[in-house]
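Hi V.,

Quick status before I head out on leave. The structure for the redesign project is tokenized and pasted below; the design run finished overnight.
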């Protein structure tokens, strides 16, 4: 998409956040969730520096892990969000 829209003068930026403790989480945010102000500050700083791919904190590690070892990344993510295994099995 970035290449396609560049011809039209449109800049496409990808921002990937880790878990962010927002009201949407309704008290179910993981322990390692970051605060919205911190997430926004990091993204804006990178955006202002001209970055086209912004991966905030743990999202960068997860992206790299997913590229190298996709199955391991899924297991790690599932542990981080604390989803019961019975619920995961039902989704498959």
């Amino acid at each position: 998409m970035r290449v396609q829209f560049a011809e039209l003068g449109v800049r496409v930026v990808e921002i990937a956040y880790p878990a962010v403790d927002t009201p949407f989480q309704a008290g179910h945010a993981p322990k390692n969730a970051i605060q919205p102000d911190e997430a926004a500050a990091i993204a804006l700083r990178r955006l202002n520096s001209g970055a086209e791919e912004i991966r905030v904190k743990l999202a960068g590690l997860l992206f790299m892990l997913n590229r190298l070892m996709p199955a391991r990344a899924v297991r790690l993510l599932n542990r981080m969000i604390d989803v019961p295994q019975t619920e995961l099995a039902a989704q498959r």
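Above is the designed sequence. The first strand starts at residue 14 and ends at 16.

G. will cover questions while I'm gone.

Best,
W.
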